[in-house]
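WARN retry 2 of 3 for item q-0093 after timeout on previous attempt; input resubmitted unchanged.
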Amino acid sequence: MTQENMKKILEIGVQLSAERDFNRLMERILSCMMELTNCDAGTLYLLKEDRLHFRVMRNNTLNTYAGGDGKEPDLPPVPLKRENVCALALLEGKTILVEDVRNCREYDFSGPIRYDAITKYHTQSMLVVPMRNREGESIGVLQLINALDESGTTCAFAEDMVLMAESVASQAAITIQNARYIQEIRELFQSFVKTMSSAVNERTPYTANHARHMAAYADRFIDYLNTCPGQKHFTPSQKEELLMAIWLHDIGKLVTPLEVMDKAKRLLPDQLTAFTHRMELVRLNAEISCLRGGISAEERDALMLQTREAARLVDQVNSAGFVTDEMLEAIKLLQEKTYSGEDGGIHPWLAEDEYAMLSIRRGTLSAEERKTMEEHVVVTDKLLSQIHFSGDLSHVREWASSHHELLNGKGYPRRRKGDEIPIEVRIITILDIFDALVADDRPYKPAKPLHVALDILRENAEVRGELDPELTRLFAGSRCWEEAKAPEISGSDC
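OK item q-0093 returned
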């Protein structure tokens, strides 16, 4: 082995170690091996389920190339049978060197010869090298075809090429195995993240699809942004980091009390039950008082009617999307009504805590309950602080725990504003609000029609200054909530 060849092998080792993308790694392995042996064609097979699967193919004479994009060549896998030379090399763990496949009686080359008849190619010399990792486990096979001399004429592979090819194949096998380990660890972590997100959803049926919807929106929206001039373009790793932040953004809800998270109406169930029983008690007292002659039948009937009207009012206000001034005044008058209890004391028809709940103008949560609900982002930050994220996922914790921050500084928990909020957080916030608006599985509100939801987003962006106006406009133009894989792109939107 010459010093020049040794240098090439070392350079190849450096190249393979530096490549992180698995598809490009497969391509680089085959290209480096073909360059090292100066051959015209080659195939890289990977072993999977007792078959050798075509992973990358290249033929310079035919100007064909397949597999570098991650899509395997459309060819049937090769069974691990000794009559297949690539399979035999792997089964016996030895390199096979053939000068001329048509004059070789030791191995069956009927397959390559038939392929030559179809493609009009002429396979002559062949070098087949098995790839095994450091534990001796089979990884795959490199099959090199038609070595070329200095004039470009097909010739036999030189004997001294065998050791060099085996050295590179060994490096390639270890690199492939390492890449697989990294991928398996990554997939394990991603499955853990999705499991944790599912754990939040399993606590309540009302947000079961929230993170999943947001991730789907983000996947399409980022692809759309990458086509828009002047916008930040996300690399695959940056997109993955954003998607992971979305999957984890509500992880803090694991500790949010269900009676707060699932609160469909203003009154808690116990409060509504107490009020209902109280109205029954007022009616019962009226009946008893009438029988004893304390009140007339007309007074009794009037009192009965008032309790039924009170129950209807409470039911109306309890489930209203917004409490009007008229409703609030009626509730105040109801709270002033009293009755005599069995203890001789005077009690209000509507308890103080019930009145406070029914006086909530918008939504179903009291100030204290809303504060409890808002704590989920603080808990999200605390939980994610316990995870050691790799460098390319280093922003997940910050982005996930900041999705309620608003550009005008009125968000929470840190009251960030303007340029303090990264573009990734701005995107998550838009997606979070949009899905909450259109969701049809929330107990406290009906789903908003699409056009209404988009109008609310625009108002939040352009009037209230809460959202990024440009990102909001692009989001509406992307139509990323639709099922189409690639949303139509309007020139005016980019």
